[in-house]
């Protein structure tokens, strides 16, 4: 079995590669990643020497390079993690989100059509459903919830999902889609809420909470997401969408307070800043389908997962300190330097 994992030098893709190489010693895993600011080759150092692993530095938008890779590897399965993934960046500059997330998906699926494939799996997000109101805790996203996006990021992911379903209906491509809630865990790029707060708190820097910090996300430990995708690509029904979520809703401010407590840092570091434009209020997944069809359930409780995550950031300072001392610093200054509340 040969699996091409795109975006495998990023947060979830790298965790997925570790999971697969560990669990299936006879599988060949090929990582296709063009190493944007979010891709980090050092993340894959533990598997670089593994004879069952190959890294290829190319973009999923490069048709020629993608076709060449299919000719070389004859993959059975494609798992597409490659994407521009940060909502704030999509608000500043939507275009690259359209190129990578939509066109890149089309190129990969064209390759699948041309060379034949057992499964194309699209890693999507609960953000395609838009948001839920805070005063309706009875509402959850199911696979039937209409697509109703808010940000350029979620719109580009939704467009890709529709294209994936269209390639299934029109060309009979054997596809599956998973829509997962917010992940956390090792190798999470420090521009996202949890790793950003851990890194800032460790450096005694302000902790920038957007708006009132009341927005709710449904947090899932990354390993549980990887296990769900593993189940879907092996046992999921072709043409189907599967929601993945942990029934673990928390407000942003509660998350930040937990991080302060775990690190022994004062809550006075918390700084309320100007809100994100179009900020989604609440995400909440109903994972009944993947549970009843494939037997998936989240295994890591948030109380344990956040401790493991914080320990990982303490034990792997070099990984994130290298990131925040480089090019990312310019982004941070641009994004937060002029933000109301941080001035
Ligand atoms: P990430 O930003 O950490 O990593 C993205 C990876 O894709 C990087 O390694 C980057 O170099 C690579 N990449 C970007 N453009 C590329 C291109 N044109 N060609 C090849 N590689 C390219 O993202 P992540 O958080 O690991 O998310 C992975 C996927 O999961 C994304 O599709 C995202 O939409 C989805 N998702 C993420 C979350 C979350 O909480 N992080 C939740 C649900 C779904
Ligand atoms: P993020 O990690 O960017 O994920 P997403 O927007 O995909 O859910 O943000 C999670 C939540 O945290 C979101 O409601 C925005 C908020 N947030 C802050 O309050 N401050 C920050 O500095 C960041 C990056 C996010």
UniProtKB/TrEMBL annotation:
Keywords, in A-Z order: Lyase, NAD
Signal peptide: none
Class of this enzyme: lyase
Cofactor: NAD(+)
Molecular-function annotations in GO: dTDP-glucose 4,6-dehydratase activity
Domain NAD(P)-binding, chain residue ranges per copy: 4-309
Record-linked InterPro entries: dTDP_Gluc_deHydtase (IPR005888), NAD(P)-bd_dom (IPR016040), NAD(P)-bd_dom_sf (IPR036291)
SUPFAM superfamilies: NAD(P)-binding Rossmann-fold domains
Catalytic activity line of the entry: dTDP-alpha-D-glucose = dTDP-4-dehydro-6-deoxy-alpha-D-glucose + H2O
Gene3D superfamilies: NAD(P)-binding Rossmann-like Domain, UDP-galactose 4-epimerase, domain 1
BP GO annotations: nucleotide-sugar metabolic process
NCBIfam families in UniProt: dTDP_gluc_dehyt (TIGR01181)
PANTHER family: DTDP-D-GLUCOSE 4,6-DEHYDRATASE-RELATED (PTHR43000)
Family: Belongs to the NAD(P)-dependent epimerase/dehydratase family. dTDP-glucose dehydratase subfamily.
Name listed for the protein in its UniProt record: dTDP-glucose 4,6-dehydratase
Species per Swiss-Prot/TrEMBL record: Clostridium scindens (strain ATCC 35704 / DSM 5676 / VPI 13733 / 19)
Lineage: Bacteria, Bacillati, Bacillota, Clostridia, Lachnospirales
Gene: rffG_1
């Amino acid at each position: 079995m040969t699996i091409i994992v795109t975006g495998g030098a990023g947060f979830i893709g790298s965790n997925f590669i570790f999971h697969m190489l560990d669990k299936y010693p006879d599988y060949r895993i090929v990582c296709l990643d063009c190493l944007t600011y979010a891709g980090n080759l050092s993340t894959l150092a533990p598997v670089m020497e593994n004879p069952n692993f190959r890294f290829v530095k190319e973009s999923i938008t490069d048709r020629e390079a993608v076709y060449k890779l299919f000719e070389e590897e004859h993959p059975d399965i494609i798992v597409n993690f490659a994407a521009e993934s940060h909502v704030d960046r999509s608000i500043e500059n939507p275009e690259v989100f359209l190129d990578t997330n939509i066109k890149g998906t089309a190129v990969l699926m064209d390759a699948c059509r041309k060379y034949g494939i057992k499964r194309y799996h699209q890693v999507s997000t609960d953000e395609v459903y838009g948001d839920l109101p805070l005063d309706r805790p009875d509402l959850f996203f199911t696979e039937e919830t209409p697509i109703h996006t808010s940000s350029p990021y979620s719109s580009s992911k939704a467009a890709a999902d529709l294209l994936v379903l269209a390639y299934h209906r029109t060309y009979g491509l054997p596809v599956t889609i998973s829509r997962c809630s917010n992940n956390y865990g090792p190798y999470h790029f420090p521009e996202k809420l949890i790793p950003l707060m851990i890194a800032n708190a460790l450096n005694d820097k302000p902790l920038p909470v957007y708006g009132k910090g009341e927005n709710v996300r449904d947090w899932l430990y990354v390993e549980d997401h990887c296990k769900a995708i593993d189940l879907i690509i092996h046992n999921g029904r072709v043409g189907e969408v599967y929601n993945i979520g942990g029934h673990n809703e928390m407000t942003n401010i509660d998350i930040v307070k937990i991080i302060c407590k775990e690190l022994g840092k004062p809550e006075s570091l918390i700084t309320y800043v100007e809100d994100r434009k179009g900020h989604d209020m609440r995400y909440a997944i109903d994972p009944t389908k993947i549970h009843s069809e494939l037997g998936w359930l989240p295994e890591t409780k948030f109380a344990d997962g956040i401790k493991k995550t914080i320990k990982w950031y303490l034990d792997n300072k070099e990984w994130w300190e290298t990131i925040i001392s480089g090019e990312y610093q310019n982004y941070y200054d641009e994004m937060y330097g002029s933000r109301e509340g941080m001035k």
